[in-house]
């Protein structure tokens, strides 16, 4: 990244998640956010160990990072940052925002959240510090159901298409031997097949399937 961009700052969307696996919905939502918020880039930040998902075993961090990079490789405005995977302990958004601010203080950060995430935002660690360092954009379609105590925190609602696909659904389809083509990038599907990921539903012990692959 050139020194001029660092000096003048970059309008950056921060898009965090487990990305287990990353799917077409992530890419589509990020593309609309890029356009409608007039961002210069969207930073995908895979979470190391989200505090709210400790009850589910995740794919190894290195593979989730590899899949995320593969998913967005064709879009120059999309980047992946491994800062949450590089530090110990649970992933807290406030730590990520503060680290990004310290690294590139001239950048304007926009935290991209779904409505469900935002409705729990007031329960996150130090939400006030998050909104002091970043704008919060709630991504949804039409009348976004934003309510509860989080509404009092500064935010904007951005209209993006609703993509009814989830990482949970993809993991379940793989476990059931169903195809996931078109739900994830071909490069992501290749990694899932290569590593035999998601051969069991969440919470189950994987059963070996020989060499037949996972999709």
In short:
The chain is α/β, with parallel strands linked by helices and 215 residues long.
Mean pLDDT: 87
- Secondary-structure element string: HEHEHEHEHHEEHH
Taken from the alpha-carbon principal axes, the silhouette is globular
Q: Report helical residue fraction.
A: 25-40%
Biggest sheet overview:
6 strands, parallel
Query: What distance separates the N and C termini?
Result: 37 Å
The beta-strand count equals 6
**Which strand order do you get reading across the main beta sheet?**
3-2-1-4-5-6
Which value, in Å, is the CA radius of gyration?
Answer: 18 Å
Q: Which ranges are low-confidence, i.e. pLDDT below 50, for 5 or more consecutive residues?
A: 1-6, 205-215
Describe the overall structure.
- With 215 residues, the protein is an alpha/beta fold.
- The protein is 33% helix and 15% strand.
- The chain has 8 helices and 6 strands; from the N terminus they run αβαβαβαβααββαα.
- The chain has helices at 3-8, 24-36, 61-71, 93-103, 115-119, 127-133, 167-175, 186-195; strands at residues 11-17, 41-46, 78-80, 108-114, 135-140, 156-159.
- The protein has a 6-stranded parallel sheet, with helices on both faces.
- Helix 3 (61-71) packs antiparallel against helix 8 (186-195) and helix 4 (93-103) runs parallel beside helix 6 (127-133).
Which secondary structure elements does this structure contain, and how are they paired or packed?
Elements lengths: L2 H6 L2 E7 L6 H13 L4 E6 L14 H11 L6 E3 L12 H11 L4 E7 H5 L7 H7 L1 E6 L15 E4 L7 H9 L10 H10 L20
Parallel strand pairs: 1-2, 1-4, 2-3, 4-5, 5-6
């Amino acid at each position: 990244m050139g020194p001029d961009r660092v000096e003048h700052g970059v309008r950056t969307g921060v898009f965090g998640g487990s990305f287990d696996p990353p799917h077409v919905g992530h890419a589509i939502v990020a593309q609309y956010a890029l356009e409608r918020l007039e961002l210069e880039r969207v930073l995908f930040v895979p979470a190391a160990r989200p505090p709210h998902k400790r009850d589910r075993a995740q794919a190894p961090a290195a593979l989730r990072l590899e899949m995320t990079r593969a998913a967005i490789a064709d879009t120059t405005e999309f980047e992946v940052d491994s800062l949450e995977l590089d530090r110990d302990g649970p992933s807290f958004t406030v730590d990520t925002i503060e680290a990004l601010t310290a690294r590139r203080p001239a950048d304007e950060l926009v935290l991209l959240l779904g409505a469900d995430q935002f409705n729990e935002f007031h329960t996150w660690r130090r939400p006030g510090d998050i909104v002091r360092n970043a704008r919060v954009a709630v991504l949804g379609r039409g009348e976004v159901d934003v309510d509860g105590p989080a509404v009092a925190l500064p935010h904007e609602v951005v209209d993006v298409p609703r993509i009814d696909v989830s990482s949970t659904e993809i993991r379940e389809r793989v476990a059931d031997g169903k195809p996931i083509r078109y739900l994830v990038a071909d490069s992501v599907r290749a990694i899932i097949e290569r590593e035999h990921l998601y051969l069991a539903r969440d919470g189950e012990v994987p059963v070996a399937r020989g060499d037949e692959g996972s999709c």
